[in-house]
Amino acid sequence: MIRFECDYNQGCHPLILEKMQKTNFEQTVGYGEDEYCENARALIKAACGMNDIDVHFLVGGTQANVTIISSVLKGYQGVISPDTGHINVHETGAVEATGHKVLALPNIDGKITAMQVQEYITAHYEDENACHTVQPAMVYISFPTESGTLYSKAELEALYEVCRANDVCLFIDGARLGYGLAAFNNDLSLRDICKNSDIFYIGGTKVGALFGEAVVITNDLYKKDFRYNIKRHGGMLAKGRLLGIQFETLFTDDLYFRISKNAIDKAMKLKDAFEQLGYELLNDSYTNQQFVFLSDEQCAKLKEKYVFSYWGEFNGKKAYRFCTSWATTDEQLDALIFDLKNYQ
């Protein structure tokens, strides 16, 4: 079977394994205070163009989301999210389990707008019963979104302006950050992400690492005692150098960005094939997630050789998601496209 259901179904880039093997018997201090983690932090700071940021390494996306959100919010506060946001629909109530409500807003192509956020916040504070409801104190977005779409620089700047005006933290889930930055219609840089958010993370699990996310805190308000929250949520890896080695490797010679481009190149080749062969796409995604409508017969035939994900039913038609990744090969994609031609 050839798997297109997600972007984390393979191991890691060979250079990471090589570095782990080479350093396997070295003795280092634990808990992310080793030289590899320090060097990875320095490389990430250089890529972000900011030295006054804090960088922490966690194992996975849900762990990062829960740790970040619970560290920022007080007990009576909640986090605004698109209704399609990962924390709202795909994390088994992990955020709510910390005592913080996810305040879901209707998505527009997977996104929420600055106007939506401002209207929600304004409505909360104009309500004479405001203190009886959850206070919005954070905005959560994903880049790219769960729908494969991107925030433009103008959209992100507008969101951040609203957040700052209302003393609300803007947090960006960057589980697929590399793929968003590599998309040819993207106008945001990593430095722009830094300048227009309070906290974000650089996804490794889905972009070439065995596991791991690099949390970047840009706002001084949220830096203090963050390591306490990492430990409290079970995220302080004793063998922390395993995370440092991976991000040190990924941020050496732009490896992270180069392998992200492979996923985008393959996704655009698949998108072109869908369109040329007459398949209908759910949306106009330029990232590594492509969403297509398939008949039951087409789906059954393709599932004989490929693994992909059911996404939902829209106007009586079933949509499916195909993901490419940093490791997707031409051979894998060519095989899929060949069969798509036969199952038109």
Write structural notes for this entry.
- This protein is an alpha/beta fold and 344 residues long.
- The chain has two domains: 2-7 and 255-342, Aspartate Aminotransferase, domain 1 (Alpha-Beta Complex); 14-250, Aspartate Aminotransferase, domain 2.
- It is 41% helix and 17% strand.
- The protein has helices at residues 14-22, 35-48, 61-72, 86-89, 94-97, 114-126, 153-165, 177-182, 190-195, 226-232, 241-250, 255-276, 296-302, 330-342, and strands spanning 2-3, 54-58, 77-82, 102-105, 135-142, 169-173, 199-203, 213-217, 289-293, 306-307, 309-314, 317-323.
- Strand 5, helix 7 (153-165) and strand 6 (169-173) form a beta-alpha-beta unit.
- The model has no long low-confidence stretch (mean pLDDT 97).
CATH class call of the largest domain:
Alpha Beta
Oligomer state of the chains in this structure: single chain
Q: Return the domain count.
A: 2
Mean pLDDT: 97
The name CATH uses for the topology of the largest domain is Aspartate Aminotransferase, domain 2
Q: Structural class, judged by helices and strands?
A: alpha/beta
